[in-house]
């Protein structure tokens, strides 16, 4: 009976461009391009930042070649994060070094509001999250930030995650327009200058992987839920 989904221990057949270069025992990473099924922009400028970061790929698992016969390449699934499907793509497998994941130690994270300067190398946005969540409510979640090696980021770097008070362009229920025009709350008589206003510290993260234009960030501590459109800065 034909199978549509494959998991650890299953045998699969691979279609490779360079069949003659493959050896028994060789491993491949199975990946799949993914996109938000809702197609909704959750903050101003999200679509533009996503295009600049590049296409989002999900790691599905790992397979190992167990048999070569003519043009047939047979492999076994050795690990899977999600069910593999026909049509998933292959990359040469290379072990990844996982940086240390310490607990929260930032001096800035000990206070709710702070004006302490962050590194001038980079200050970016939380653009997306694993599973296309809009809100990250605890430690252990994965976020994607438009901060890459071009800005000097590298695996193991710590990020401070925060919200700019009075900033527009985040989720609609946090904009000043919602508070003042729709809910009737008062507003400041003076224009807010975002670079001078205090920021609300939300938590900390550690960079796991970087590309030239994006970083995969593991949330290590949280004070308050983090939403798409919130900010991240190198400590």
Q: Assess the beta-strand content as a share of residues.
A: 35-45%
Gap between N and C termini, in Å? Answer: 55 Å
* Tally of individual helices: 2
- Gross morphology is elongated
Q: Biggest sheet: strands side by side, in what order?
A: 9-11-14-13-12-16
Instruction: Please give the number of β-strands.
Output: 16
Radius of gyration: 22 Å
For the sheet with most strands, the description reads: 6 strands, antiparallel, barrel
The secondary structure category is mainly beta
Helix content: under 10%
**Series of H and E elements:** EEEHEEEEEEEEEHEEEE
Spans with pLDDT under 50 lasting ≥5 residues?
Answer: none
* Overall pLDDT score: 81
Domain count: the total is 2
Characterize the structure shown.
The protein is mainly β and 235 residues long. It folds into two domains: 5-92, Ribosomal Protein L25, Chain P; 108-186 and 193-234, no CATH class. The protein has two helices and 16 strands. The strands form four sheets. A six-stranded antiparallel barrel has the order 9-11-14-13-12-16. The protein has a five-stranded antiparallel β-sheet with strand order 2-5-4-3-7, with no helix packed on it. Strands 1-6 form a two-stranded antiparallel ribbon. Strand 4 (56-69) and strand 5 form a beta hairpin.
Main traits of this protein?
mainly beta; 235 residues; 6-stranded antiparallel β-barrel; single chain; 16 strands; 2 helices; 5-stranded antiparallel β-sheet
């Amino acid at each position: 009976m034909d199978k549509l989904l494959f998991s650890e221990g299953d045998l699969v057949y691979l279609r490779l461009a360079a069949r003659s270069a493959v050896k028994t025992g060789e491993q491949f990473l199975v990946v799949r391009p993914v996109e938000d099924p809702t197609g909704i922009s959750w903050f101003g400028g999200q679509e533009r930042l996503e295009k600049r970061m590049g296409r989002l790929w999900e790691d599905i698992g790992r397979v190992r070649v167990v048999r070569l016969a003519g043009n047939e390449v047979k492999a076994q699934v050795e690990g899977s994060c999600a069910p593999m499907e026909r049509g998933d793509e292959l990359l040469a497998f290379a072990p990844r070094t996982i940086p240390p994941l310490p607990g929260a130690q930032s001096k800035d994270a000990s206070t709710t509001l702070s004006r302490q300067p962050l590194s001038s190398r980079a200050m970016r946005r939380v653009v997306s999250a694993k599973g296309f969540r809009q809100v990250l409510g605890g430690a252990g979640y994965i976020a994607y930030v438009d901060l890459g090696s071009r800005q000097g980021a590298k695996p193991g770097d710590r990020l401070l995650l925060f919200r700019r008070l009075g900033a527009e362009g985040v989720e609609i229920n946090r904009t000043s327009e919602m508070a003042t025009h729709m809910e009737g709350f008062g507003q400041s008589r003076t224009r807010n200058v975002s670079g001078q206003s205090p920021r609300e510290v939300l938590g900390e993260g550690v960079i796991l992987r970087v590309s030239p234009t994006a970083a995969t960030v593991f949330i290590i501590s949280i004070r308050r839920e983090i939403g798409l459109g919130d900010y991240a800065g190198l400590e």
